[in-house]
Specification:
- This protein is an all-alpha fold.
- Helices cover 71% and strands 0% of the residues.
- Among the domains are: 131 residues, UbiA prenyltransferase (Tetracycline Repressor, domain 2), CATH 1.10.357; 129 residues, Four Helix Bundle (Hemerythrin (Met), subunit A), CATH 1.20.120.
- The protein starts with a helix and ends with a helix.
- It is found in: Mitochondrion membrane.
- Pfam families: UbiA (PF01040).
C-alpha cells in the first residue's frame, strides 16, 4: 500500500530509491505498526506540504465589560482602547436618525459613568494611609482589647470572689474586678500579630488592618497593664497582683509565640483562662487554698470543649494563618481531649462538697448540664463534623455561667463554717478540760 501511494504522489524517478530505502529498513528490523505510522507522517510532511498540519492562530477572547482593566507593566506596555466606528450611511428616515442619536447619547453617558467607576476601583486597590480620628478611637481601642473576652474574664474573677468563704467586701471586689479587667485589656492588645491577616476571623482586627499603629497599641497596653497590676498589688494584696502579672506574661510571651510552634499552646492557653477565678478567690481570702484550685480546675477543663469545638470549624483559617492547632495537625487528639475534659467536669463538680466548698446538692443539680455537655462531646468525638462541633461550642457558652451560678447558690455560707469551727474548738476545749487534773 505504501508503494502504491508513492507511485501516485511521486514521479517514476523517485520510486526505485524509495523502494530500496524501505527494503533496507525492512531487512534491518521488523516494521511495526507504530513505525509504519511514523513513516507515513514523515513522508506526508516531506513530499506534500499542503497536507501537513498547520497551527491555527488562537482567537483573542472577548473581554467581559464588567472586568476591570489590569495594568501589568505600565512603564513598558501601554494599552489603547480602540473604538469601533460605525460606517457612514445616510439615514433612511427621520425615526431611524432619532434612534441612532439616542443610542449615541446613551453610549456616551455609559462611557462617562464607567470611567470614574474604573478610576475609583483602581484607587481602592491601592494602599491608602488610614487617618485616625478621635471619634473612632474608643471603638478601635475596645476592639483592640477584645472587650467581650475581657468581660468574660472579669465575670469569672467575680465568680471566684463570690465563692470565697469570707464576708463580702465591696471595695475589694471593685478593685479586683477593675484591676483584672485592665490586665486583660493589656494582654489582649499585645496578643495580636501580623499573621492574623491571613484568617477570616481575625483579619478585621484594628492592629491588623492598620487602623492603629503598633506603637500606639503598645502604649495603650502599658497604660492598662501598669495601673491594673498596681491596683491588684496595692489595693487588693500582693498575691493577686503577682498572679495578674504572671498571667500577662504567660499570655503574651508564651501562648502567643507558641501558636505557630506547637499544639501545646492550647494547654498553655487553658492555664491562662484558669487563673482569673483563682485571682478572685485570692483577692477575697488572701490565700491560695483548695477552693481556688478547684475553681481553676473547672475553668481549665471547660476551655477544652469550648476551644476545640470552635477551632474545628476554623481549621482552614488556622492552616492558612500557619497556626499549629490540634484540629489541624491532630484531629483525633482534638476530639479525644474535648470529650475527656467534658467528663472531667463531672468529677470536679463532685469534688466541690468533698473539699467543703459547696453542699452535696451541687453535684446533683449540676449533673444534668454536665451530662448534656458530655453527650455533645461524645457526639463531636464520634461524628467529627461541623454540626456536632457547633452544638458543643454553643452549649459551652451557656454551660459555664449556669455551672457557676449553681455552684454559687449551693456554696456553704461563712456563718456555717464559723459555727462549725467554733463547735470544733469547743469540743477541743472540753477535751482539754477533761485532761486537766
Amino acid at each position: 500500500g505504501l508503494f502504491v501511494w508513492h507511485l501516485k504522489n511521486t514521479g517514476i524517478r523517485q520510486i526505485p530509491c524509495q523502494f530500496v530505502h524501505l527494503w533496507r529498513v525492512a531487512n534491518d528490523r521488523l516494521i511495526t505498526f507504530q513505525y509504519f505510522n511514523f513513516l507515513k507522517r514523515m513522508y506526508v510532511t516531506q513530499y506534500n506540504k499542503d497536507l501537513s498540519q498547520r497551527a491555527k492562530p488562537k482567537s483573542d477572547s472577548v473581554a467581559s465589560p464588567f472586568r476591570e482593566f489590569q495594568q501589568l507593566d505600565q512603564d513598558k506596555k501601554i494599552i489603547h482602547e480602540i473604538r469601533q466606528i460605525s460606517p457612514v450611511h445616510h439615514p433612511l428616515s427621520e425615526t431611524s436618525s432619532r434612534k441612532e442619536l439616542r443610542e449615541m447619547k446613551s453610549a456616551a453617558e455609559t462611557e462617562d459613568s464607567v470611567t470614574p467607576v474604573r478610576a475609583e476601583s483602581k484607587d481602592d486597590r491601592q494602599w491608602k494611609e488610614m487617618k485616625l480620628r478621635l471619634d473612632d478611637l474608643p471603638g478601635i481601642l475596645a476592639r483592640l482589647s477584645k472587650i467581650k473576652l475581657t468581660a468574660l474574664v472579669v465575670s469569672t474573677t467575680s465568680a471566684g470572689f463570690a465563692m470565697a468563704p469570707v464576708p463580702f467586701d465591696l471595695t475589694c471586689f471593685l478593685l479586683a474586678s477593675l484591676g483584672t479587667g485592665l490586665a486583660s485589656c493589656a494582654a489582649n492588645s499585645i496578643n495580636q500579630v501580623p499573621f492574623d491577616s491571613n484568617m477570616n476571623r481575625t483579619k478585621t482586627r484594628p492592629l491588623v488592618r492598620g487602623q492603629i499603629s503598633p506603637l500606639l497599641a503598645v502604649c495603650f497596653a502599658a497604660s492598662c497593664g501598669v495601673p491594673g497590676i498596681a491596683l491588684l498589688t496595692l489595693g487588693v494584696n500582693p498575691l493577686t497582683g503577682a498572679l495578674g502579672a504572671f498571667n500577662i506574661f504567660l499570655y503574651t510571651c508564651c501562648y502567643t509565640p507558641m501558636k505557630r510552634m506547637s499544639i501545646a499552646n492550647t494547654w498553655v492557653g487553658a492555664v491562662v483562662g484558669a487563673i482569673p477565678p483563682v485571682m478572685g478567690w485570692t483577692a477575697a481570702t488572701g490565700s491560695l487554698d483548695a477552693g481556688a484550685l478547684l475553681l481553676g480546675g473547672i475553668l481549665y477543663s471547660w476551655q477544652f470543649p469550648h476551644f476545640n469545638a470552635l477551632s474545628w470549624g476554623l481549621r482552614e483559617d488556622y492552616s492558612r494563618g500557619g497556626y499549629c492547632m490540634m484540629s489541624v495537625t491532630h484531629p483525633g487528639l482534638c476530639r479525644r481531649v474535648a470529650l475527656r475534659h467534658c467528663l472531667a467536669l463531672i468529677g470536679l463538680s463532685t469534688a466541690a462538697p468533698v473539699l467543703d466548698i459547696t453542699t452535696w446538692t451541687f453535684p446533683i443539680i449540676s449533673l444534668p448540664i454536665n451530662l448534656y455537655i458530655s453527650y455533645l462531646g461524645f457526639r463531636f468525638y464520634r461524628d467529627a463534623d461541623r454540626s456536632s462541633s457547633r452544638k458543643l461550642f454553643f452549649c459551652s457558652l451557656w454551660h459555664l455561667p449556669m455551672l457557676l451560678l449553681v455552684m454559687f447558690t449551693c456554696k456553704k455560707s461563712f456563718l456555717e463554717k464559723e459555727d462549725k469551727g467554733d463547735l470544733l474548738s469547743g469540743n477541743h476545749g472540753r477535751a482539754m478540760e477533761i485532761r486537766l487534773p
